[in-house]
Write a structure and sequence with these properties.
alpha/beta, Glucose Oxidase, domain 1, Rossmann fold, 2 domains, 10-stranded mixed sheet, 7-stranded mixed beta barrel, 24% helix, globular, ATP-binding, arginine biosynthesis, CarbP_synth_ssu_N_sf, amino-acid biosynthesis, glutamine amidotransferase
């Protein structure tokens, strides 16, 4: 089926649709990963977004049951240069097109993804819509221009009811702003007793669970759209160790008086170098975010910078000077991507051990 991608800035890309024949619209972003399309499309942080893959061949190793990062994909659509119809991998159970049909998702292939990526790099993130070829282009453009970006993505992807992943180690409350299963896997590897709670859970409710530590997950959208989480974090500081990832990192910054801003085109991919200022070592990291902490705004807070991105010098990590609390902008659980930063989960365990020893 012939389809086209229309951007609010007027550009049109004609290609072949895959998945279901259905119009879909969202924020068009690009991801620089060579692999990981299955984890990407099931990452709740992509809620409301249409993702362009910069690597030209997508789908060649198929889809399997183990590499999902959530049960329900939150992605709005996928854009690829070449879609593989006949994947080859011993774990493959279906093609990407078959999965999109089963999950009622829409994609488009056969377009110039490099040109699209250059447009996003130059103009910044834009709204776009995948429609059938005969749809009136000007009508789509005007419709896109009249719409605002959604502000309730975290509410859409967060769990509605608490659930647990039992273990015999430290009790960790994971606040789900759009958490990837990779975070639960890493905590479970360390035998943590995990309770996953909704994004709007209060500090009082969390403290009643008697946690040894709090994990603030990744998630989609603008951190300033989640003001209740900032209040929750402020109430927990000093009472229990806290580790934040991605959106959780930004929320810690806001809760402590820092500011956040929207990046021109974000960081998305499994190949982003980050410098650890303490060790002076560089880790290649998996990233997926469109917002960042304004590093200058940290000057009058109790936070200090721990990591920076080498590509654009933006903030990638902070630590509280007084309380047991630290966070990173990238994904130490990877999925997909390198596991260079996996040690941060061990740092979290050590933080809980130290805090418990000093308060017994």
């Amino acid at each position: 089926m012939k389809s086209k991608l229309v951007l609010e800035t007027g550009e049109v890309f004609v290609g072949e649709g895959f998945g279901i024949n259905h119009e879909t619209e969202g924020e068009v972003v690009f991801n620089t990963g060579m692999t990981g399309y299955q984890e990407l499309m099931s990452d709740p942080s992509y809620c409301g977004q249409i993702v362009c893959m910069t690597y030209p061949l997508i789908g060649n190793y198929g889809i399997n049951r183990d590499d999902f990062e959530s049960i329900e994909p939150a992605i709005k659509g996928l854009i690829v240069k070449e879609l593989c119809d006949f994947p080859s991998n011993f774990r493959s159970q279906m093609s990407l097109d078959e999965l999109f049909k089963k999950r009622n998702l829409t994609g488009i292939s056969g377009i110039d993804t490099r040109r699209l990526t250059r447009i996003i790099r130059n103009k910044g993130v834009v709204k776009g819509k995948i429609v059938s070829f005969d749809t009136d282009t000007e009508t789509v453009i005007q419709d896109l221009k009249s719409k605002n970006f959604p502000t309730n993505q975290v509410e859409q992807v967060s769990t509605k009811t608490p659930y647990s992943a039992p273990g015999k180690g430290f009790k960790v409350v994971l606040v789900d702003f759009g958490s990837k299963l990779g975070i639960i896997r890493e905590l479970s590897k360390r035998n943590c007793d995990i309770i996953v709670v909704s994004q709007d859970t209060s500090a009082e409710e969390i403290l009643l669970m008697k946690p040894d530590g709090i994990m603030l997950s990744n998630g989609p959208g603008d951190p300033q759209d989640v003001p209740h989480a900032q209040e929750m974090i402020r109430s927990l500081l000093g009472k229990v160790p806290i580790f934040g990832i991605c959106l959780g990192h930004q929320l810690i910054g806001l809760a402590c008086g820092a500011k956040t801003y929207k990046l021109k085109f974000g960081h998305r991919g499994g190949n982003h170098p980050v410098l650890d200022l303490k060790t002076n070592k560089v880790a290649i990291t998996s990233q997926n975010h469109g917002y960042a902490i304004d590093e200058e705004s940290l000057a009058n807070t109790d936070l200090e910078v721990t990591h920076i991105a080498l590509n654009d010098r933006t903030n990638e990590g902070i630590r509280h000077k007084i309380h047991p609390c630290f966070s990173v902008q990238y994904h130490p659980e990877a999925s997909p991507g390198p596991e260079d930063a996996n040690y941060l989960f061990d740092d979290f365990i050590n933080l809980m051990e130290g805090f418990k020893a000093n308060h017994n």
